Amino acid sequence: MRAVQAQGDPELLAALAGGDLAAMRTLYDRHAPWLSARLTRRCNSPDAVADVLQDTFVALWQGAERWRGDGEVAAWLWGIAVHRLVSRLRGRREALVLPLEDIVGNRAAEPSAEERVLLGIEYGDVGTALLRLSPEMRAVVQATVLDGLSTRQAARLLGIPANTVKTRLHRAKAHLRHDLAGDLA
Amino acid sequence: MTTWHTDDDLLARYARGDAGPLLGASVEQHLLTCAGCRRRIADHVDPTPLDAIWARIEDQVQVPARGAVERWLTRAGVSETDALLVARAPSLRASWLSGLAATMFFAAVGAAWGGPRGVALFLLLAPLVPVAGVAFAYGPDVDPAYETALAAPYPAARLLLLRTAAVLVSSLPLTLLAGLLIPAMSWTAVSWLLPALAFTAVVLAGSTWARPGAVAAVLGAGWVVAVGSASRASDPAAVLTPALLIAYAVAGGVAVLVLCVRIRHLARLGSSS
Amino acid sequence: MTAALTVSLTGVTKRYRGTPALDSVDLSFGAGITGLLGPNGAGKTTFLRIVATVLAPDAGDVRLLGRVPETADRLAEVRRRLGYLPQEMGFPRGFTAFGFVDYMAVLKEWTAHAARHAEVRRVLDLVDLGNVTTKRISALSGGQRRRVALAQALLGEPDLLLLDEPTTGVDPEQRVTLRQVLSRAGERSTVLLSTHQTEDVAALCDRVVVLDAGRVRFDGPVTDLVATAAGRVWLADAPHPAARASWRTGTGRHRNVGEAAPPGAEPAEPTLEDAYLLLLGDRARTTAVAA
Q: Which residues, 6+ apart, have CB-to-CB distance to B22 below 8 Å?
């Protein structure tokens, strides 16, 4: 309604911190779709994803003033969401996690030219180096580096022991260092 | 700054889960910084479950959480709406109930160790506890929105009676327990229930004429004088002789009859308003 | 199918300590908005309370829905179709705006919580409080609190809406919103609006009733009341000695109301306020003469 649609995310957050539920509705309309898609790629239970989305925005309502005003609101929201996802997985015997697609799929497939270009833009050389990692190592890198989880949280998300996470991350970093050094040479 | 944007096909594949891990990761990184592509992915995500989730968020954020008293009432079989209305009585709030518990604890301690004066204190407080509870459960003195509530269809008599029942259930057992734990008390540990119930009935009947607080104050003052003079004369338990117990029972019965006859007066403001 | 709730009072009297707050009042109302004007102590609040069924008259009949609501069932039936905003309304502690209106909705027998919550949101949006629903009432301004009180009266689109000073403390911007809400309500319901603000009556009401000392001084179309001031209002540079009342306007001139305008005076278009002042003044003069 009214001018709310024209406002940027930081202004909406400020209004929301002041108790404006309509501002949170707008923020929800803008971010829930991609958050839901991104969460679904890490957890295959629609109920759990729904619960996490609900928790995320309720937490947002209660803690909107905690945003320090730096960076993207979207990134901050993802941080809240992924931590909520991990909390929800605590204490579950079967991990609700979808194994990353390529573990089942084509291990040996070469990345397409398009993929190479895109990776180059988003990640630069690191992106192409990531390609050369095994899927298990890539999963660990994604959870810890991209999603910003701790070792223990990554372990919970992926359904593997924390030590395995540490080992794979260590090996992944060694590979990447080796690859990047090789590229520079 | 990259000017690369996802195209619709890629977004559709990503939303379906078909984009592959690396492309997916790229899309995800991109979406964190691009509002336009975030808008476009909404076209590929089913809005129905998202709307349902929003309804849950809205409820969780706006609808007041149900307090402990309300939850216990519902568990005891009271309807949700009745429980909501009853739990709103000021004398059923946590602050009041904990004050009540503290008072009875000290009264019991006083009675156990204070000899006849301790017993007098207990007898003074015990019947007045439900009276105070009822006086603070209902009426223009304790409810700033009383007049507006009267104009609503929910029967005022029902609200008063339900709240009174809740007050009695919350205060009588505690006081009874305190009394029974005192060895010196024998029958008086239980017989104070009669004046307690009789006074409660009198406050209810009186509220069809005057404000419950006023009636309770008069009763309280009378009881203080009675217990005071009995304890000064000989034995505080003199207010609980069999003859007086019968008198309390009769007074309570009459009060209940008066309440039944005049119950429709509860639905209007008193004439002094 | 809801119809406007007809109200009719016959010989209604209410006394407080001997003095009549209402003295044998006969009035009837149907659909539309009626303004109720009168000085303090005129009996407006007593009148509204009696129509709202929260006060019983000492004498006379009040018929709502064609019958006197005597039994508890009839009373509940009438109260289901009525919305009431008292002159002084407080709020119990610890409520948010949403929470309080929800509580009132429960009292109005909205048992299903999904429908009830939707209705609460609707009325709060109507009075433009949609962005502060989760705020504690104690944290709201006086005008916002008054709007919360009005919102609860609007629950369920009542057929009879009784409002005692609804715009007290409400700022001019919000008053415009409220006028729109009330005007829409008056299209299908019976609305009785008691107020000191003659501009609200002039803007909203087709009919006006003036009460004074418990008696009806005027009952009729607003235009008729305004017409009684014709030729009795004039502008001058200074207060006129022959004027009954005189005050400085925004333009610096003085507005005078009194008996016939003196010859050569600059006549002014009478407003409802002018007519109202003249009416009360006339009453005071006739009582003085009679005494």
A: A111, A115, A119, A127, A130, A131, A138
Nearest CB to A111: which of B22, B39, B54?
B22
Q: Which of B39, B62, B85 is the last residue of a domain?
A: B62
* Same domain, yes or no: B184 and B146: yes
β-pair partners for A149: none
Closest in B61, B155, B268 to C56, CB measured: B268
Cα(B4)–Cα(B2) distance, integer angstroms: 5
pLDDT, one tens digit per residue, over C189-213 is: 999 999 988 999 999 999 999 999 9
- B247/A143 Cα distance (integer angstroms): 79
Does B273 map to a domain?
Answer: no
Over chain A, what HEC string results?
CHHHHHCCHHHHHHHHHCCCHHHHHHHHHHHHHHHHHHHHCCCCCHHHHHHHHHHHHHHHHHHHHHCCCCCCHHHHHHHHHHHHHHHHHCCCCCCCCCCCHHHHCCCCCCCCHHHHHHHHHHHCHHHHHHHCCCHHHHHHHHHHHHCCCCHHHHHHHHCCCHHHHHHHHHHHHHHHHHHHHHHHC
pLDDT in tens, C4-55: 678 999 999 999 888 889 999 999 998 899 999 999 888 999 999 999 999 9
- Judged by a CB distance cut-off of 8 A, whether residue C76 touches chain B is yes
**ipTM tops the 0.85 cut:** yes
Structure tokens at C225: 């009341």
For residue C238, the SS3 value is coil
Touching C (3+ Cβ pairs <8 A), the chains are A, B
- The whole domain housing A142 covers 108-184
Interface partners of chain B (CB pairs < 8 Å, 3 or more) are A, C
DSSP C280: H
Strands C7-16 and C59-64 turn out to be antiparallel
